[in-house]
C-alpha cells in the first residue's frame, strides 16, 4: 500500500471507531432519559426517547455498511480485521441496548399515563445506575483498548443479575400481599428485565473488546478466564 | 487464484454454511425439547437441554473463528463477503435463541419441581409452535437463499408479538382473579417472553438473509419494504 492509501485506510478505520462511540453515547443518553422519565413522569422526555430510537437504528445500518465497505475494498488483516469484526458484532448489541431503552420509555409512559405515581420502592433505580455505568465503561474499554475495564464489567454483570433476581422476588411479594399492585408490578418487572438485558449487552460487548485486544475469544469461558486474560495484559 | 485455491475456498465457505445449519438444527431441537419438557414434566429432558447449551456455545465460537480465518486469509469480496458477514451476525442471534431455550428449560424445571402441574391454559403452546416453525423457516431461507420465505417469517413475527401481548393480558387476569397463581404465572410469563425473543431472533436472521441475497439492508425498513424486495426477486 502507498502512504496515501495507508493514511486513507487509517482514516476510514478511525471513522468507524468514532461513529460507534457516538452511537454508544446516544444509547447511553437514551437509557438515562428513559430512567429519568420513569422517575419524574416526564412524558415529553419519554416520547423523545421513543422517537430517537430511529437514530440508533440509522447508526447501526451506517456502521455496518462502513465495515462492509472497508472489508470489501481494503481487505484488512490481523488487528484491523479483528477491530472491524468486533464492531460488526458490538453494533448488534448496542442496537439491542437502544431497543431496551425504548421499551423502558414505552412502559414508563404507560405507567404514568395510567396515573400510577405511587410506585413500589424496588431496586430498579440501583439496577439502572449499575447498567448505565457498565455501558459507559464498555465504551471506555473499547475506546482505550482497556481489558481490565472490560473484565470489570463482566464481573459487575453478576451483581446486576443478582439485583434482578431480588427485584423479581420483591415484586412477587408485593403482588401477593396486595393484588391491586399486580398490573403496576408487571410493568415494573418488564422495566427491570430491560435493564438486566442492557447489563448483558454491556457484558457481551466487553467480551468482544477482550477478543479485539488479545485475539482470544473469551465468550462462554467464565469470569476467571477473562480476568486472567486481563491480568496478563 | 488457481483452480485448486478456488476449490479449497469453496470448500471452506461450504463448511461454514453447513456448520451454521447444524447449529440451527441443534437450537431448533433445544427449543422443541424445552417445550416438550414443560408440557410433560420430563425433568431428565429439561436437564439435557440445560447441559447441551454448551454445545450451542461451542458452535458459536467455532463458526466465528472459521469466518475470521476465511476473512483474514482469503479476503473474499461481493457475495462471498456478504455471506460471511451475514453468518457472523446470524450466529449471534442463533446463540441467543439457544440461550432462550435454556431459560425455558430452567423455568420449566422450577415449575415441575415445585409440583405445579395445573398450569393455566395460556396460549404458550401456540406461541411455541409458531416460533419453532419460524426458526426452521429462517434456516431454510438461509440454506436456499429464499427471500420469499424470509419475508414470510418477518410477517409471522407480528402474529407472535400479538400472541405475546395476549399471554400477558391473560396471565394478569389469572393473577388478579386468583392471587395464588401469581408465582406460577410469573414463571409462565418468563417462558412466553423467551418464546417471543426466539421469534424476534428468527425475524432478525431473516432480515440478514435478505441482505445476503439482495445486497440490500432491510433492517428497520418495515415489512412492506421487505416484501417488496422479496417480490422483485
Automatic annotation (TrEMBL), chains A, B:
<dbReference type="InterPro" id="IPR038078">
    <property type="entry name" value="PhoU-like_sf"/>
</dbReference>
<dbReference type="GO" id="GO:0006817">
    <property type="term" value="P:phosphate ion transport"/>
</dbReference>
<protein>
    <recommendedName>
        <fullName>Phosphate-specific transport system accessory protein PhoU</fullName>
    </recommendedName>
</protein>
<dbReference type="InterPro" id="IPR028366">
    <property type="entry name" value="PhoU"/>
</dbReference>
<comment type="subunit">
    <text>Homodimer.</text>
</comment>
<keyword id="KW-0592">Phosphate transport</keyword>
<dbReference type="InterPro" id="IPR026022">
    <property type="entry name" value="PhoU_dom"/>
</dbReference>
<feature type="domain" description="PhoU">
    <location>
        <begin position="21"/>
        <end position="107"/>
    </location>
</feature>
<keyword id="KW-0963">Cytoplasm</keyword>
<dbReference type="GO" id="GO:0005737">
    <property type="term" value="C:cytoplasm"/>
</dbReference>
<feature type="domain" description="PhoU">
    <location>
        <begin position="125"/>
        <end position="209"/>
    </location>
</feature>
<comment type="similarity">
    <text>Belongs to the PhoU family.</text>
</comment>
<dbReference type="GO" id="GO:0045936">
    <property type="term" value="P:negative regulation of phosphate metabolic process"/>
</dbReference>
<comment type="function">
    <text>Plays a role in the regulation of phosphate uptake.</text>
</comment>
<keyword id="KW-0813">Transport</keyword>
<dbReference type="Pfam" id="PF01895">
    <property type="entry name" value="PhoU"/>
</dbReference>
<dbReference type="GO" id="GO:0030643">
    <property type="term" value="P:intracellular phosphate ion homeostasis"/>
</dbReference>
